[in-house]
Design brief:
single chain; 162 residues; two-stranded antiparallel sheet; globular
Length: 162
């Protein structure tokens, strides 16, 4: 069952990429008491994720912060080594928190997983963007078409925020 606006995020342990290496963090603790933009994507370095989805959140950081957002976080079904390398390669380090969901437990708990085994990728996260306030989903935009980052874009979420 897919998470909905008004529901609390499930509690799952993910690995946050930090300067000191990966840090296990429970989602209930990461999102507690903060306003967070969270976006999920199928995979680091994949064309749409790398060229279209992630860059929009990097360039929109100041606009989100001006609307009261405390942190911007991303998650994908990749290990923390891959996400650390991607953070470095994209200049996102220090601007976006990378939350590695290596086994897809968070994506599955959200009901936002899909099977990309036919393309050799296994279970992945659907592409989405959400606004989370103190662990509760306030906005949720799930991309309806693979290979697109329109509904789940930073710009679309910014436009929804009052």
């Amino acid at each position: 069952m897919t998470i909905k606006v008004g529901e609390r995020l499930p509690n799952v342990t993910v690995r946050q990429v930090t300067p000191d290496g990966p840090k296990p963090v429970e989602t209930k603790d990461y999102f507690a008491g903060k306003t967070v933009v969270l976006f999920g994507l199928p995979g680091a370095f994949t064309p749409t994720c790398h060229k279209n989805h992630l860059p929009g959140f990097i360039v929109s950081e100041a606009a989100f912060k001006a609307k009261g957002v405390d942190a911007i976080a991303m998650t994908s079904v990749n290990d923390h080594h891959v996400l650390s390398a991607w953070s470095d390669a994209t200049g996102a380090k220090g601007h976006i928190d990378f939350l590695a969901d290596g086994a897809g437990a968070f994506a599955k708990a959200l009901g936002l997983e899909f099977d990309a085994s036919a393309g050799g990728l296994g279970v992945r996260s659907k592409r989405y963007a959400m606004l989370v306030v103190d662990g509760v989903v306030k906005e949720l935009n799930i991309e309806p078409e693979p290979g697109k980052a329109d509904v789940s874009s930073a710009q679309h979420l910014l436009e929804q925020m009052k």
